[in-house]
Amino acid sequence: MTQTSSARLRPDERRAQILEAARRVLLADPHRELTVELVAAEAKVSPALLFHYFGSKKKFQYAVIEEAAAEILLRTAPDQSLPPAEQLRSGIRAFVRAVLEAPQLYRATLLMSAAGDPEVRKLHSDLRSVFSTWVIGAVRETGVEVTPVVELACLGWQGYVEQTLLLWIEDATISTTDLEHLIERSLDAILSTTHPDPGRPPGA
């Protein structure tokens, strides 16, 4: 599409066109930093026009992160046709794979949230809430009684997943397959610590 023909697009269509260009840039090289210049070139518009439609680099980054978050939630939604245990495993794997399709974007989300950016922090909080609600529900469906201890373990596990993914993005010391298996098995390992110890006195 040329700049002349793209000029006929409505504002919402132009925004969608630019966000789709951002997606193509990410898919072409997931580890590359997503810059305004790269996306503008891919969308065949000027950086100034991109700023016109998004207002600022920060607002553009937020729009891309927001769309990526929606994609992650869509892809990790439980597959009701699978047995409960497989729903849980496949959902975790789908989450990891979705993150690894745009690792630098996920990294930016975590770092911007940690830095206190209010919009990204809320988006990150919403993403965590939806994912943790799904994971806890899936754990319950496998027959595990979701006690306060189990719920806390699931929430803590999500923090472990985020930190593990962030470390891997910064230094990929293992394969993506090994990373998937590590994260998938880690939930079982953490949940195993919530089982009562028959040899331990109550309250000890």
From TrEMBL:
Q: Name the DNA-binding stretches.
A: 35-54
Indicate whether Repressor appears among the record's keywords: no
Record-linked PROSITE patterns: HTH_TETR_2
Q: Which UniProt keywords apply?
A: DNA-binding, Transcription, Transcription regulation
Residue span, HTH tetR-type domain: 12-72
PANTHER family from the UniProt entry: HTH-TYPE TRANSCRIPTIONAL REGULATOR BETI, HTH-TYPE TRANSCRIPTIONAL REGULATOR RUTR
- What's the protein called, per UniProt? TetR/AcrR family transcriptional regulator
Q: Name the source organism.
A: Kribbella yunnanensis
